[in-house]
Amino acid sequence: MRALSISSADAFILVYDVTDATTFDEVRMIRDQIHETKGTTAVPIVVVGNKIDLLLENEDLREVEYATTESVVTVDWENGFVEVSAARNENITQVSYIVKL
């Protein structure tokens, strides 16, 4: 089912939880599957780290470091990147802006 969705899509938004490193690992796997299914790495992808609102009171909850992740996503993968809080509607408009680029 996922492969069918990937083959028919033109762009992707991959979301992970900044407080759960395993979710970023899943993003890596899905990104690889997108490239494999599409047969190219020239696919518009935006990677979104969600739940930054949980870090306001306790930064120790962060399991996926911002600087490292931003570097991997924007430099190594050449994809868009933003961190958001869906609960607080923070940086959500940036996701749609990056997708349009």
From TrEMBL:
Read off the InterPro entries from this record.
Answer: P-loop_NTPase (IPR027417), Small_GTPase (IPR001806), Small_GTPase_RasD (IPR052236)
UniProt keyword Ion transport present: no
Where is the protein localized?
A: Cell membrane
Q: Does GTP-binding appear among the keywords?
A: yes
Database matches in SUPFAM superfamilies: P-loop containing nucleoside triphosphate hydrolases (SSF52540)
- Pfam families in the cross-refs: Ras
Q: Which residues form a coiled coil?
A: none
This protein's UniProt keywords: Cell membrane, GTP-binding, Lipoprotein, Membrane, Methylation, Nucleotide-binding
**Membrane topology of the entry:** Lipid-anchor
Single GO MF descriptor: GTPase activity
One GO cellular component assignment for this chain's record is:
plasma membrane
PROSITE patterns, per the entry = RAB, RAS
**What protein is this chain from?**
Small monomeric GTPase
Which lineage ranks, top first, belong to the organism behind this chain? Eukaryota, Metazoa, Ecdysozoa, Arthropoda, Hexapoda
